[in-house]
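Recall the central idea of this unit: under ordinary conditions, the amino acid sequence of a chain determines the structure it adopts. In this exercise we apply that idea directly, starting from the sequence alone.
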Amino acid sequence: MGREFVDIFDGWADSYDASVSGKDPEYRDVFEGYETILNEVAKRVSGTIIEFGTGTGNLTAKLVEAGNSVIGIEPNTKMLKVTAERFPSIKVIDGDLLEFKIGHENIDAIVSTYVFHHLTDDEKGIALKKYASLLPTNGKVVFADTVFLTEEAKQVQISKERKRGYLNVVEDLEREYYTTIPVLKELFTKAGFQVRFVKMNDYVWLMDATKK
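Accordingly, the structure predicted from this sequence is:
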């Protein structure tokens, strides 16, 4: 996971919650139904859970409230500090989607929201195989992230946002590694998961994967 993506969040730690709550018009469509998305992820897992990219701890809160044991993994120092201060009883580790050390805990599920796109498709495949090695049979990976039905659909969305003048969104879509459902289905399958996709808004799809 590139250092440039980690550094982006230095300037977002203080305003992230405002963005996800719809106060930033550029990102309103990306975060539409944000609470519903978090609830859908949280309700599909239980037990000891790794959460990648804890951010300010919004998903963490729902996982903890449900009685789960959470291991938070966050590469950005400012975001990590926010989560650690908000949840002093849980373990929050400096790490990312590929590089992390969790000890010898038995892991039941792995979750994230708005994070997986920081990896290239090749890196996504490597990561999923690593996650499969950590999980038991029927263990879960539940991610929610911006995904497109096809590459053509992605280009249509970029054109739409450019016409709206939402150039920050355009920059994000062109810079980061947003992929397609067929690619993700193949990657999950090769890693030993059965996966299904649920559309949450015009950008975000839920990936609900079970280790076979």
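The chain has a mean pLDDT of 91.
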